[in-house]
Amino acid sequence: MKKLMITAVMVLVVIGLGITSLLYHDMYQQEREKAIKSEREVVRLKKVVEANERNTPKELIETSNKFIETMFAPDPNNPKSTKKTLLILTTGEAHRRLTKTDKDVHAEDKNDLEGFESKAVINESTYNRIGSQDGKVIVSFEHWLTKDGSTDKTVNEATVTIHYVDGKWKVSEYKIEPLL
């Protein structure tokens, strides 16, 4: 009888330790998952705070103006570098729009572009904050196109949406309209 009681107590102790170990392991896993989620949230919030601190008119206007100037004043000696610069400055829909064409628009023969000079003159840029990681800049500019001494000037307005991606401001969407 005494052996049976000792055996029963030992079995109960082993079962109790097993159940306790399982419960402890489950609680440990839950806490570990919570810690991982918290770390991810902290990283995400740090990026939001960084974007919020850098969401200034100076930085967003500078990015949008560079985009417009690059688009309308390509390097005549190296058109592929212009496209590369534009792709570096863009993300999302703007990037897709620049890459969706079947034909490389900058792969034309340089002789076709000979005699043409194109430049953009920024008149005014207006910054609007959309959120901590987004901004909109309205750029009023003149596009000057010169061929063999004859110059054609059009006044345009571009609405450029900019998004903070990987520590940089990039154009996510743009719309360009001529002003009459």
Q: Kindly report the oligomeric state of this protein.
A: single chain
Structural class call reads alpha+beta
In total, the number of strands is 4
The shape is rod-shaped
Average pLDDT over all residues: 86
H-E string: HHHHHEEEE
* Strand-residue proportion: 25-35%
Give the distance, in angstroms, between the N- and C-terminal Cα atoms: 106 Å
Report strand order across the widest sheet. 1-2-3-4
Helical content (DSSP H or I, runs of 4+): 40-55%
Determine the number of helices (DSSP H or I, runs of at least 4 residues): 5
Low-confidence stretches: none
* Biggest sheet record: 4 strands, antiparallel
CA radius of gyration: 30 Å
Structure commentary:
There is one protein chain. The protein is of the alpha+beta class and 180 residues long. It contains five helices and four strands. It has a four-stranded antiparallel beta sheet. α2 packs antiparallel against α3. The mean pLDDT is 86.
